[in-house]
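User: Let's play a game. I give you a shape written as tokens, and you guess the letters that built it. Ready? Here's round one.
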């Protein structure tokens, strides 16, 4: 048996496979990686005026059409990846949205402070949070996760990103981050604005011990923003771990109607009722 030929054949097959993967990713628009901007004030945010996959990013880093004063839309949703929408759009929910995967409450408030003209056109702010969003400003996680430019190799980017994502998930901590300095800026943000807070738990945040944590966070929000409505999704009837696509994102069939109800005027959830685990 000629081991040299076998080795060369293996190298050839590997090279052909990598080149094929590279070409498939490079010419498949849905795989275009999002490009990010690193900021001392905001941590990181989507680079303006880009197209990534089916996601059109505007000059304000939003996933929407042009933001102008002629629009009848007066609602802005703020959050993390649950708002950013992953790889799908929600054309049936005509609202402005800003967010990025991993953003904390302080990242959201920093974006608001950085865009006073845009924020001045908004009548209703919907802020989507989980129990871990009350920590410090989330910093840029690095170029492997949030690249600041297009990849030299799409195949390398695809492999490295998935590897880093798996490592990050295995190493994630269930410990709560220490509180960030969000109370004063949140109180200033609420002011006379119409703000609705939607507490959306991670799948791992359903169950024993978390009800008390979410109750404490609802109390924190009510203390800083006493005129605001606070909705805890865990109290929606039938809410459970089984309706999540992953550890963060619920299935659209259950999540989108809740968002639509909040936009239309809120949802009524009896205090004290909790969804099943």
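Assistant: Ready! My guess for every position:
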């Amino acid at each position: 048996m000629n081991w040299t030929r076998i080795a060369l054949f293996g190298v050839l097959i590997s090279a052909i496979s990598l080149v094929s993967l590279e070409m498939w990713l490079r010419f498949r628009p849905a795989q275009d990686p999002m490009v990010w901007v690193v900021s001392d004030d905001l941590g990181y945010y989507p680079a303006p005026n880009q197209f990534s996959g089916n996601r059109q990013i505007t000059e304000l880093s939003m996933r929407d059409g042009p933001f102008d004063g002629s629009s009848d839309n007066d609602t802005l949703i703020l959050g993390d990846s649950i708002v950013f929408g992953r790889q799908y759009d929600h054309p049936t929910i005509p609202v402005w949205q800003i967010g990025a995967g991993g953003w904390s409450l302080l990242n959201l408030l920093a974006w608001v402070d950085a865009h006073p003209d845009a924020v001045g056109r908004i009548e209703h702010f919907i802020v989507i949070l989980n129990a871990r969003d009350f920590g410090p400003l989330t910093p840029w996680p690095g170029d492997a996760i949030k690249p600041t430019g297009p990849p030299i190799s799409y195949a390398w980017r695809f492999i490295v990103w998935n590897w880093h994502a798996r490592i990050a998930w295995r190493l994630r901590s269930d410990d709560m981050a220490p509180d960030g300095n969000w109370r004063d800026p949140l109180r200033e943000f609420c002011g006379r604005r119409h703000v609705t807070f939607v507490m959306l738990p991670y799948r791992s945040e359903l169950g024993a011990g978390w009800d008390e944590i979410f109750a404490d966070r609802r109390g924190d929000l009510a203390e800083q923003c006493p005129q605001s409505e606070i909705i805890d999704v865990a109290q929606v009837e039938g809410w459970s771990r089984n309706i999540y696509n992953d550890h963060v994102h619920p299935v659209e069939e259950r999540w989108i109607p809740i968002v639509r109800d909040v936009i239309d005027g809120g949802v009524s959830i009896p205090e004290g009722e909790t969804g099943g685990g």
